[in-house]
User: Which sequence fits this backbone?
């Protein structure tokens, strides 16, 4: 069922994910959820130099891109990292390039940086 | 709203261009799951959930707690595929299928009650559910299983 409309819809999804990831604060918020999942806004806000409103805006962009899923728990809203969209981008884009020389170079970079 | 225990809950979500019925079939029938679920042959009936590896060994089983086709499936989870995880407490897996515009469905997978199963939590959080859900999407949208990447 790989039709043009399906491909176009995927492009729109990918755009949202790439745009969401193109901001350092948003990547930092995702990293913090990776460390510990299911955090509240207050908790997330305490780790970044930004107003509550600013953090809320970033969280909304991440939610629209499907990178976080929220759940209410009593009076609180909890934020969960959803890595599936990143996996889908990986499957579609990165796999093609990483098999072979590109993955060796990435490996070399990590090793050298680890040694420092 | 039910309360959510942040520390022992994982939530994954994916949009799939398929009908709720197609997604439901792919979740409950072993001939589908073997193509995207780490080769596991999984069967979910209204009463019981079982998972078998390609060699026929039991990878997991437990009662089905809710069976509402094609919307909602809740079952217990035990990680019998790994001796290190097999002795842990059972946890719970919830599948929710919600129709969206444009022929899409939103599939949400919640794996919770993991407080008694920290090793399972770690194991499914890595490649585990992510690979399952991206594989399910690819299978339903293209008819092909994902290339095995590792």
Assistant:
């Amino acid at each position: 069922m790989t039709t043009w409309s399906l491909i176009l819809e995927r492009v729109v999804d990918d755009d949202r994910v790439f745009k969401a990831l193109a901001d350092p604060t948003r990547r930092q918020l995702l990293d913090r959820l990776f460390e510990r999942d299911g955090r509240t806004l207050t908790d997330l806000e305490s780790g970044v130099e930004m107003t509550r409103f600013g953090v809320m805006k970033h969280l909304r962009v991440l939610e629209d891109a499907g990178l976080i899923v929220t759940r209410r728990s009593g009076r609180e809203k909890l934020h969960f990292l959803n890595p599936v969209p990143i996996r889908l981008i990986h499957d579609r884009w990165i796999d093609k390039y990483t098999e072979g020389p590109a993955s060796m170079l990435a490996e070399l970079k990590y090793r050298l940086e680890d040694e420092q | 709203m039910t309360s959510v225990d942040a520390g022992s809950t994982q939530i994954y979500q994916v949009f799939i261009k398929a009908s709720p019925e197609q997604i439901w079939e792919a979740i409950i029938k072993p001939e589908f799951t073997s193509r995207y679920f780490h080769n596991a042959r999984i069967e979910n009936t209204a009463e019981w959930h079982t998972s078998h590896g390609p060699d026929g060994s039991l990878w997991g089983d437990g009662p089905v707690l809710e069976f509402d086709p094609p919307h909602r499936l809740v079952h217990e989870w035990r990680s019998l595929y790994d001796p290190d995880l097999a002795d842990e407490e059972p946890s719970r897996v919830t599948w929710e299928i919600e129709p969206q515009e444009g022929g899409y469905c939103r599939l949400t997978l919640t794996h919770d009650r993991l407080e008694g199963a920290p090793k399972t939590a770690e194991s499914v959080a890595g490649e585990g559910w992510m690979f399952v859900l991206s594989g399910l999407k690819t299978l339903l949208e293209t008819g092909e299983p994902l290339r095995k990447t590792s």
